[in-house]
Every structure is written in structure tokens, then in C-alpha cells.
Amino acid sequence: MKRLFVIATLLGAAPAMADEGMWTYNNFPSAKVKEKYGFEPSQQWLDNVRLSSARLAGGCSASFVSANGLVMTNHHCARGCIDQLSTAKKDYIANGFYAKTQGEETQCPAMEINQLVKITDVTETLNKATQGLTGKKYADTLKAKMSELEQACSAGNAKARCDVVTLYQGGQYNLYEYKRFQDVRLVMAPEHAIAFFGGDPDNFEFPRYDLDVTFLRVYEDGKPATTNNFFKWSDKGAQEGELTFISGHPGRTSRGLTIAELEFQRDVVLPKTLMTLSEMRGMLTEFGRRGAEQRRISTNLLFGVENSVKALKGRHEALLDKTFFAQKVAAEQDLRKKVEANPEMKKKYAAAWDEIAKAQAQLRNIRQDLTYMENGGGLSSTLFQVARTLVRGAEELPKANGERLREFNQANVPALEAQLFSPAPVYPELEIARLTFGLTKMREELGSDHPFVKKVLGKESPEKLAARLVKGTKLRDVKVRQALYKGGKAAIAASKDPMIQLAVAVDPDMRAIRKTYEENVESVIRKNSELVAKSKFEIYGTNQYPDATFSLRLSYGAVKGYSENGKQVSPITQMAGTFEHATGEEPFALPKSWLKNEKALDGTTPMNFVSTNDIIGGNSGSPVINKDAEIVGIVFDGNIQSLGGEYGFDESVNRSVSVHSQAIIESLTKIYGATRLLEELRPGSTKLPPVKASPAK
Questions:
Q1: How wide is the angle at C-alpha 463 spanned by C-alphas 457 and 466, nearest 5°?
Q2: How far apart are CA 38 and CA 17, in angstroms?
Q3: Helices (H), 222-321
Q4: Are residues 249 and 263 in contact, defined by beta-carbon separation less than 8 angstroms?
Q5: Alpha-carbon distance 651 to 563, whole Å?
Q6: Partners of 609 in beta bridges
Q7: Which is nearest to 503 in space by CA: 406, 413, 422, 385?
Q8: What InterPro entries does UniProt report for this protein, alphabetically (predicted)?
Q9: CB contact at 8 A, 260 and 684
Q10: Taking the chain (697 residues) in consecutive chunks of 10 residues, what is each chunk's mean pLDDT?
Q11: Angle made by CA atoms 181, 187, 191, in degrees to the nearest 5
């Protein structure tokens, strides 16, 4: 470990100190910001920043940066779209993409962007509905009420998405209403070589020299959407010591988990997951060596796997740190002593920690079945997931909304259909390789005598079954999917498609293990985590932030360096350093466009920078703004010390890593000649015709 955690920031209960916290917009500590930095965000300021922020439904953040629906995010967040639009002849991942005219902006096959328009506290409603309930009755009632609230919120509006967000491990519930944009088009993406300069060796490190940025545009009714709230561009960009805000969608933190839950992560989940991902990395690396096309179609998946390996390794090291873990244990013991000392609180909350521990023991017993059956670890194939969605859709959609599996709630159907009918390419050779890997791991982990393994494999080897399924299915054809979806149960029952037949055969087994998990584990943890959270509220108050849940959060901090191994790390790198670190060999090989224009660039232009803002995975693509709500950068990473941020925050070394806004302008101007884009970002800088409408491609 390269860091030590500060005990006060790890209690998961006491008010946050320093620049710690990924805060919800309806509980942002504006007064605390003023106390430290002299600026107090007003409600109007917060509302504008919230509406100028965006979420990529696949797991990243973004921002609106013009009145014409222009969206900025990371290159690695938009890789799926860029990859899906690429072909062997037009490799936009390798060579980049720029739409010189609005008519050249190309629609992403499977992308949705969300804008948070309203937050409603529904805690009282849900608590009243579940009062006095436990076990299955509690879980069923809670899910049904959540579905009811989400359905009433969207009210059949296909452009609305509503999610009940669980905060403070169930201590609070908020209803988030989003505006959905499903027509998203690619505007500009640099080459992979500069967007991920340094590759895996530099991932989660600093200094960095990346241009990890991509521009998209959202459309409505075939026209660029009008966005009244958007971030303007700063003239100077991030300055050392400057107050910065990051508005984004951190995926998940575990700072409020109990010791029993953390032990399960440390001893079981993380080691097993890291082993599997490492093996998958080897499989994908071998696959990419088969040829240029195999490398192209597998690179995106390999990128994700390598990123996950490094991130999870950092989290595991944090939990293995004895000093850190002892601090977490001490914090929980202190909280429990306070509960035990109050007779009324003891009666309400004291048993919660033990109940969670029992549920974790149950989870240990079913983890492998859950992983390789319901969670898709064994049948790791895009085409199988399509088949299972079709099979389950035929079963779930005729039911009353509150009785369906959560993913089939009416509020989720538009997004589900968009994914199901996406024209994104599926590559058979890669599907066979992935499915072979998953089936092999399933047989290895569950054992060849396991009933599920026997049902899936029969007498076939993983390789032969994977090849037969992928080569025999027709589900690559979107029209086939649409016909099966429309035909419902009758069409599914009559289908001879091998993927559909397999999904039908194994769905009862998958549902059974899911039912066991939801009733014996999830419901117990959810109910008792709610009690733990309420005990914290009673003891420490509500002046604290909840764990990240891939819901919109705002963090504050400053552009500031840090000390590592006795050396001071400067907070800002320069463009000249990019060329100094280039070796000509991957992953330190610059694209031709950069080498060609090196002399035209101002080498002193800031390239990347770090700040003390508290972030986690999911914040990728988040805008970094100043007190005037102007873009000064875009988050693309955290430093290696930030990986333990899953469980705690240490302002002395935790840093977010961002592309400097000036680097974006300098490269768009002198390398890519993106004058049309520059005019949108900085109106008046060039003279260009207004953006016009065009049909989707």
C-alpha cells in the first residue's frame, strides 16, 4: 500500500472532514464549502449544475457543453459506440473520428444519455409500506412499492426514466426522475493511442498525458436537442490551488458496510473475481493474437477487463491493510457500544449487525451458484443474454407491474427494448471464445456433477457447445429478436433456436437461486442495513454523505499535488511531456496526427491535472468545473492511492485525475482542425453556420 488512511474519515458515520464526500444535490454542504473556500453554492447554482450534468446509461458520466445538445465524456466511456461504428476498413478506435459537418454525425447503435430533472424524498412512503415487515414479505412489499412509485413517475412517458435510489444502505430513499435521450450521435473521438496513452502500465497512475475525451450529441425528433442548461468553457482552465467541483455518477462505494460485509469482500469476492478476470485477460490476449480483426473486435473487452483487474487489486490491498481494517473494526465497535448504551436504541438496532453477519454466511454458501447461474458467469455470451431477456420478457411482461422481476418493471421497459433491439454488431468468433471460457469456468467451479452443469453441457465439451449455440442461433438478426419479443410465450415455446431453447431450459434453475438469494440474503441485508443507517442518524445526525449508488453526486476540492514515496508530485502536467514520454512502441506510441503537428503545439499547455475531489469508478467523464460553473477539465481516472476510496478517503493522497480543458482546445485547434466543434464550445471563436437537423443514420 502506498498510503495510510485517516481514521476520522473512515467511520462511515461521523460528519465528513476535509474535501471528503460524494454528496447528493438535495443535501450538499454549501456552508462547509464557504467555510473552507469562501464560495457558497446557491440553490440556483446547484440546479444549473445538476441539469448541465448527464449520465451514460452504461455506467459513465458526462456533461452538456452547448445549447445544441453537445455532450462531453471520456473516450473510454464512448468506446462501445466507437467500436460498434467501426469496421475492418474504418477503424475509428485506431484512427479517430470527426464529423466535419452535422450531417456526418453518426448514431450510436446502443447508447442512452440521462439528465436528472427532479429528486423527491420517498423515504416516509416506503418506510410506512414496510413497517413491521421482515424477510420475504418485507422484500416483496418494498420492491412492489418501488415499482409503483417509478411507474407513477414515468406515467407511460417513453422519454422519462424514474428510479428509486437507495441511500445510506436503506436509511433514506429518493425518487430520481430523468429525461432520457436515446438518439445519441458521435461527433468527435481522438485516436485510442492518445486517449489511453500509457495503457495499462499508466492506468491509475500520475503524472499522466492522456486526451481521454469524446464528444457526442443528443437528438430529439431527428434534430439536435435544445439544452437550456449547459456548462460554458473556462478561458484559463484549472489553476493550481483553485476550487473545483466534480458533478458525476460515482458507481459504488462501500464505506458504510459492516465488518461482516467487508470481510466477505476481502476473503471471498475480491480474490475469486481477480482470479477469474486475470484468466479472462489471458484468454482475450490470446484471442487478439489470432489476427488484426480478432484484435480489433476484442480490444474493447480487454480494455474493460484490464481496468477492472487493476481497480479491484487496489481495493483488495486496502482491505488487506491491517491498520486500515483495524480502524474500520474500531469504528463499528464504537457505534455498537453507543447503541448498546441506550435501552431504546438497543431494542431497535442492536441485533442488526448480527443479522447481516448471518446473511453473509448464507451468501458464502450460495455464492458460486449465484455467480455462474443467475449472474451469468457461466453463460457469458451476448447472444445468450439476448435469449434470456426474450424468454423472461415473455414470462414477466404479462404480469402486473409490481409482480415482475425488477428489471422488467414498466419504467425500465424502454431502456430494455433499446438494448434488446440494438443493431450493435455481435462477432461470432468472439462469442464462441467468451462462451467457451464461461462454460469452462462454470464446470471448474461448480463441478461436473452439479445438476446445472449437467443440464447445460450434457455430454458436450464447452468448446463444442459454445460453437453449436453461436453458429446455430439466429439472434444476431434484430428482426428475429423483434418477432420473438412480439410473439410472447407462444413464439418462445415454438422456437427451435438453440439459444432460446437453452434459456428456456435453465431459466427455472436461475430463478430458483435468485429467489434464495433475494429472500434469505438480500432482504435480510437490506432491512438490517436500514436499521444500522438509522442508528447512525440518531447518533451522528444527517450531516453526512451516503455511499455512491451510480446516482448524481457533487464533490468539491482543489487542484493540489501530493507526496508519494517522499517526493512531491506536481498537480499539473504539460503537453510537452506527452512527447517526452513517447517511445514509439505501444502503449507509449503517439498517433501520426500528434507526431505530425508536434511543432505547432504549445508545449507549455497544461495536459492533465489532479485535484482533491472525492471520486470513484463511474465518475469517468464527469465535468470538472470552477465556481462559475465553467469547464476546467474532465475526469478520466484516479491515482493509485484512490483505489482504496471504495472503503475510505484520505485527502493527503487521494486524487482525481483529469484532462485539462486547455489541452482539449489546443488539440482540437492544432491537431484535429475541429473548427465546427470549437465554435460550439467557445462561441464567436470562429465563424460557422448554425447546427442543422438531419435524419438518424
A1: 70
A2: 17
A3: 259-264, 270-288, 292-320
A4: no
A5: 11
A6: 572, 658
A7: 385
A8: AH/BAR_dom_sf, Pep_S46, Peptidase_S1_PA, Peptidase_S1_PA_chymotrypsin
A9: no
A10: 39 59 97 97 98 95 98 97 95 97 96 97 97 92 95 90 95 97 98 97 97 98 97 97 98 96 98 98 98 96 95 96 96 97 98 98 98 97 98 97 92 90 96 98 98 98 98 98 98 98 98 96 96 94 91 98 96 98 97 98 98 97 98 97 94 97 98 97 66 42
A11: 125
What pLDDT is stored for residue 17 in this prediction? 53
**149: which 3 cell numbers?**
412509485
Position 692: which residue type?
K
Rounded to the nearest 5°, which phi and psi values hold at 61?
Answer: -115, 170
Q: CB within 8 A of 199, min separation 6: which ones?
A: 586, 587, 588
469-496 burial: b if 16+ Cβ within 10 Å, else e: bbeebbbbeeebbeebbeeeeeebeebe
For residue 344, give the nearest of 535, 560, 500 by alpha carbon: 535
Give dist(CA 496, CA 243) in Å, integer: 61
Greatest distance between any 2 Cα atoms in the chain: 74
Task: Tell me whether strands 630-638 and 232-233 are parallel, antiparallel or unpaired.
Answer: parallel
> Which residues are CB-neighbours of 677 under 8 A, at least 6 positions away?
70, 98, 187, 188, 215, 668
Amino acid at 536: K
Distance (Å, whole) CA 155 – CA 527: 29
Distance CA 218, CA 88 (A): 27
CB-based contact 430:297 (threshold 8 Å):
yes
